Predict the structure.
Amino acid sequence: MPLIRLSDPNDPRIDVFRNVPDPDLFVRGGLFVAEGRLVVRRLIEGRRFSVRSVMVTEAALVPLRDLLATRDELTVFVVPQAVMDGITGLNMHRGCLAIGERPRPRQWRDVTRGAQRAIALERIANADNVGSVFRSAAAFGIELVVLGPNTGDPLYRKAVRTSMAATLAVPFVRAPQWPAAITDLRGDGFRVVALTPALTAAPLEDIRPMAKLALLVGSEGEGLTRDALAAATLTARIPMTLAVDSLNVTTAASIAMYHCFAERRQQV
């Protein structure tokens, strides 16, 4: 664990951290940012992604020193809080950042055929919602998250942080075509249950655990598109009072995951 202590915000060795506020630049460079002591710890411990470098304040170094000491290949920059805030242009009060490498895209079929429990997201653009769905997916044993059109990047800094690093643990894949990907899931043996508040849909409690099941959720504002609903095996709704017309997508997805994958609780 080579420690490099810096006080000069213009040091070129930390130039990559200047791009933290620009997610598009990181995507083009095949990189992503992890923020916060817990998230960075899980990134390093998980070993699912290559880590290029870590930047910490002296205070953040203390709880991470034991882990960083086991990774001699990691370069760790130790900087004052003012330097970290200055080069990122953000208030990094957690005092900890890491730069990870994005994995190469996997073949759609290779990913979907190995899963039993999945959730597919259509037009979930908000990073907080994406991260929260991943956090619930990790809690309920989801093995695959399918990213439909206009769905946010799970490796965006805010999504990773909101998920408490679940986006670094739960496998995900971009759907190659939509809604054809839903048909592909059905062809691989999945029953695809589309969530909708429509009263014509079956109550969620009527859905029984299945060998291969994929939930399908859409944007909070407009819900699932007609094409996605038509491609699903069946539709389901969460019964609720007439006081509201719908739930936040994260809340709805979490309720559905808990119901459909509840047998997993017996395996803990």
In short: The first helix runs from residue 23 to 28.
